[in-house]
# Entry
Amino acid sequence: MFNLESELKKWRKNMRRNPHLTEGDVAEQESHIRDEIRKLIDQGLDEKASFEMAAGDPDFEDALAGEYQKIRQRAHGRPFRHPSRFLPALGWNYFKVAARRFRRQKRYSIINIAGLSTGILCSLSLVIAIQYELSYDRHYANARDIYRVITQWPQEFMNSNKITWTSALMAPALKAQFSEVAGASRVAEKSEGISLAYGDRAFFEKMFYFVDPDFLSVFSIRLLQGQKETALNNPLSVVISEEMAGKYFPAEDPLGKILRYNNTHDFLVSGVFRNVPTNTHFRYDFLASFPSLFVLEGENAVYVNQWTSLNYQTYIQLRTGADPSAFEKIMGTYLLKNTPESMKDYRYFLQPLTKIHLGGNLPGDLSQNGQMKYVYIYSGIALLIILITCFNYINLSTARFSARAAEIQIRKVVGAQRRQLIQQFVGETLLTTVIAFIIAFLVILFASSYLNKMTGADFNLSLLKEFPVWIGAISLVCLICMISAYYPALYMTSLRLPRFMKSGTIEGLAQRRTSGKIFVVAQFAISTALVVSTLTIHRQVGYIMNINFGQLKGTVVTLRVSHDNENMKKGIDVFKQELLKDPAVERVAVSSWLPTNIRSGNNAVWAGMKETKGILFHNLKADRDFFDLFSLSIVQGRNFSNDFASDSTQAYIVNETAVRAMGLKDPVGRRFAVGNDIGVIIGVVKDFHFVPVHQRIKPLAIRSNPKDQLYLSIKIHPRTIDHTIQVIEEKWKKISPGFAFSYAFLDDDVAALYRSETRLGISVSFFTGMALFLAHLGLFGLTMFSVERRVKEIGIRKVCGAGISPIIILISKDFFMWILAANFISLPAAYIVLTRWLQGFAYRTQMDIGIFVLSFVLSFALAVLTVGSRVYKAASANPVDSLRYE
Amino acid sequence: MISKALIAASTKPIILSVLLAGEDYGYHIIQRVKQISGGSLAWSDRMLYPVLRRMEEEALLLSRWVMFEEGKMRRYYRITEKGRQELDRERRQWRSVVQALSTLWKPLPSLD
# Structure
């Protein structure tokens, strides 16, 4: 099919190749041909014939070129040729010039490459870390079609009215009812962990879940051993990960083996699956068949058959092409119709699998999620570091312009066009950036585990194999090249010879640059802002870690007693007494949750309440030692006591927030109930942070006599930790043989709650350090340049009698003015951003003027060191050396 | 058929005269000349454009690019002051030539 435009394009390309025709000649000729073609078409010819008539003459190009050549030769006395677009020989010349300059100006080149490598290293690390966060759950083959059902209920719990818990009836009902559902599975967790044993190998396991057979197909889990279709059909069967197969059955075939569960039931290993990657919103080592729950729970299993019992996660896989929002609507209508009247205010949503990790934390989440805001923060830091890196490069390249002015002018005189000069500089920058990239890449490759610790980022080298990371890396190099190459190239090539002559000296020209100052100010503004941010983040992290239980850190060991550990549950008092016999054990408390993160709640009512509905209270069961161990003071009434028999069943202690929420002045002695447990308030405990400090303190009701769910908190002497833990383990094994012993430190639990903040603190510190390094590297380079340029001036001033101090002040005063300006810009900006960040915490440290003063002093002190050392060296040199060759 | 030499000699004054009427572009100049001459002066593009370029370099013409359709450009020429003076000079020369030839070719008086 004839296409006029593409034929004209070919024609144009062909004409442009002729060295005697300029762009203008070709364009004018093209407009002529277009007019001619239009006329011929109007006369009735088709496009092809018209084109051939208007432009088909094979001799035309040579004839036209000949005419032009004659005219130009007559006018200029020499034949005209436009330079070739591609000059490989010139490329080699550029390379030689670049290599030569690298050799001759080693210090500048090293500063340049070091700066670029550091910048690329930091930003590439951040790209990998960001990619890791974004890659969560995307490895599942059906990731786009998998959704988790979210329940919205008419009350707020743990700062959210949405929860991930659903009824166990939901998944089977949705699968049976809707053809859109390709697969559905429930997931039940054992949040307290369980004890598993094979022979004498017993371990405490936290990643044990109960799932439907569909789970394997929905999440496309490949079984290395066992039959996928039948592996989870029978009660008490379990599929285990490759890693667990190695841990429990190092030299045996795991298939068909028996794992003893909590010393009560035997699970048959029916399959082995490939290890789950770490970038999964919940990781599992054991997947047991869902019907096992009926066997394990016995009479309690009735809850599994209730719509009102929300204890299970529901995952569904929609058929490819099904519209999730339409399905969400019909699912909502169906559930509303088929669930009990008491759930009429409940709503249901679908949460895409790939959005779970960065979608924030919801009550019931199977593990701690990441936060989108940290992805933004990391991206912001990466961008700032790229900017600092580029400004460094730009500053050093343009500052050194004077050294290149002659080269540029000579190239121009012998006919170089601006485009070619720009190409040369961009090429040089690309070369330097690629060298820097290779260095950064090698560092990442060989020091990844170290970087992991330093950056606090989840840093997975296997991501380097992934396509998006490479796209990110290449874009990074291109971005750095674009920013750092184009400005110096445009700047240097824009200067005309007369201007260069008029400025008197080449140095005079370099001094006039104002853009360089702007870049230095920007660099310092960014790094000072980062210093303020680091200090504030550390202060806040320190504040939240110490806000409660800070004084107890490192000395409280916590043990979790499994639901099935009947011996321990019955013998808990004996165990307590046994532990207290050890002189290193100071106190032992038993509670249903650890005081750092209480996650159960129920509606409470009290005598004389005005509201028709109760208030949602968090609830806890704890013994009297709990208050002493965690230094929680009773501000009204009394603690639980053995002197009152009714305390074990009817006494409540509430917190101060609860008293305020109930609007009571004198709560002690008032009748009060949480759920169906009626009792009396006997005391008020001072408020403490039993939920992460992002949330405000909520009403809390504490009852005594914990039974079903047990945590033991043991305060031990910090000097003999290892020995004491050994003693505790021995005593544990005596009372509950067959249950694996597992312990944690309270401060580790607290740290786990604030993992993302701690990680942010570490990352920001690291990258701030790098930004400071980069900014000062740039400053060092500029000082070095400035001193070199003025070495004779310094010599002459000294000969004329100037002292060292006035010279130091003269040379460095500019730099300090810039840093002052940088602080002036960055400190208010940092104040605004950090105030907003802190507002995300219900309890936060105050913005402290001290931090700003410290950052200001720090930036100045570092600059004094950087600039001063170099200037002092120059100022104290013997003028004879600098003036000798004059 | 007009000889090459005569076409070459007349090109400059013809172009200047056409542009005296106003700005114009190459293709249209060719069409106008063809029309005025009743088809006897058929200039080729390969001849005209280099001449226009030369006249521009001699500062007899000025050109500018005009976009006449989306992305399509035309180069328009106009006559300069120097061009007008040149045209006057040419006009005088051509008039002298035409006058001389007219006189010579006047039919001789009959002696009968």
